[in-house]
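seq as requested:
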Amino acid sequence: MRSYEDIKGWPAGINVEIKGPSGIIKTVTDQFGIFDMKGLPPGLYEVRPELDEQLYQSPGCGPSAKLENGAVWECKLQISSTGKRK
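struct tokens:
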């Protein structure tokens, strides 16, 4: 699974949660806002950034994203501000 964060100005260091047949896997985006997960088993996946929901929102990707054996799947996560401040 290869996924890209689409966050204007803050792509690096975003925690990402991947839910699938093996349970929950967590990773972090690199300095370019990219994370790359290899060796995931086939099945349905849901990908969501871990965000402060009072400040940001994201629809994520899935859970209808079906990964086939040996396939590459790209998920662009859209993150927007709620307009609220802490």
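The beta strands are 2-6, 15-20, 23-28, 34-36, 43-49, 56-57, 61-67, 74-78, 80-81.
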